Amino acid sequence: MSSLAEKDRPIVQLLLNTGTCPRCVLRFCCVGSQMLYRHPHKDLMKDLQEFLKNSQEEEDTVCLDVADPPCKRLRLEHREEEGADDLKHNGAVPQLPSADGGNAAVESSPGNVCNVCLGILQEFCEADFVKKVCQKVNSADYQFTSFVFSVSLPPQLSVRERAAWLGVKQQMRNLGLPLPKDDIVQLKEAYKWIIHPQLSEELCVPADGKSLFEVSVVFAHPETDEECHFLATACPDCFKPAKNKQSVFTRMAVIKALEKIKEEDFLKHFPCPPSSPNNLCDALEIQCNNGAVFVAGRYNKYSRNLPQTPWIIDGERKLESSVEELISEHLMAQFKADSFNFSSSGREDVDVRTLGNGRPFAIELVNPRRIHFTAEEMKRLQQAINDSSDKIQVRDLQLVTREAIGRMKEGEEEKTKTYSALIWTDKAIQREDIAFLDDIKELKLDQKTPLRVLHRRPLAVRCRLIHTMKSEYIDEHHFRLHLKTQAGTYIKEFVHGDFGRTKPNIGSLLNRTADILELDVESVDVDWPPTLAD
Where does the Pus10 N-terminal eukaryotes domain start and stop, copy by copy (predicted)? Predict the structure, then answer.
């Protein structure tokens, strides 16, 4: 049962007299009935008006009886020991204003902007605003089956709540009445109690705190923007410039300062209770955002003139396309996403082909409008990618979870990879000159960071393993070498030695100069993503 009791009468009287809206009055009385907040503004005002007409001795409660779960609370201040000086009523208990006097104030207040919530729990709870939000959502053309609603409030609301609370606290002290709690129902929580059912009804989907589709509203109140500024003088440590923040007066910084500032210092700088503003808040932004969708697969690269990702040096593009772009352009169009992030299990050089079953990859599609795809639709999307270019092919294209991508990244260092290298030697060779390579197992290498990647990789010596090698003689100066290696092995450097930075190397093993002419990745032994039936 949620209700107002006689002990709440002075709080109701004070707040209504000072320009507080009915819903904020309920918040300050710690009323936790969600249904009650959803009643029309005029009805709530009438209920409070009737409540104030009851005699002070009446113990019965007046309000609607609604069963609701317990609500969250917003702690406004730390409890302080009340000394003798706190009660400055000189031994006399001032009388409350009469019910008639209070009602005069009540009757004039419905058209005023609330001095605490600045209109958030007034105009922005009405059907017209809800329809405006839903029109924005529907026009954005998102696919969603539920939603989560978020709201960004002006930081000065915290200052006004503190001022209103101190007014309540002072009134109760003057009356010699106890104030059992120093918390109120959070404004955001009360607003969501009111707005959630309306949005659900209008959008025809439920509100769900775990939904990936977010509807957000950003409120501002330019008229009172400077009300936080006195806190910067009182608590300068709380307001420090931060990246991506237009103002130091963030909600968290203001709350932190309010926790630190002494009550008497606060009262010197801010009116208590707060004055009524002239204007309502502005709804600056109504935004929609869908959680990221992840698509995975394996790709083959058949071109020796195609980088994995855009090749840009000093701001200049070197090649017209990349594996990443050939795949992502189709996904971006179909999922209608804002942007994407490409990742893969390792990478090959621009002149290296990737054959066999291909290399695992994943693409994060940011803020997609479309999120539901059947297996048949994914198959058609895969075919569209494959038909668009002879440089790449994609297989096993599928939707995956964010968590599943971790399996792909684990394989970068832990799994093995198989390569085929075409090698040239300066001195003539015979079959028997390279046959011994087939017998070498678990060859340990010390690879100093290659010169060609030193600009983007830290200088270090990495220990790597060549598990097996199989040679294939071609002619006196050429042979093909098939290698199975530890992931992360630099194959080109293993062949030519990189000026002695990789030891041993094919050149040192054959006792002659060797270089690599072609390199193919034949397999990436990462068992992910799952193979799909054709």
Answer: 114-288
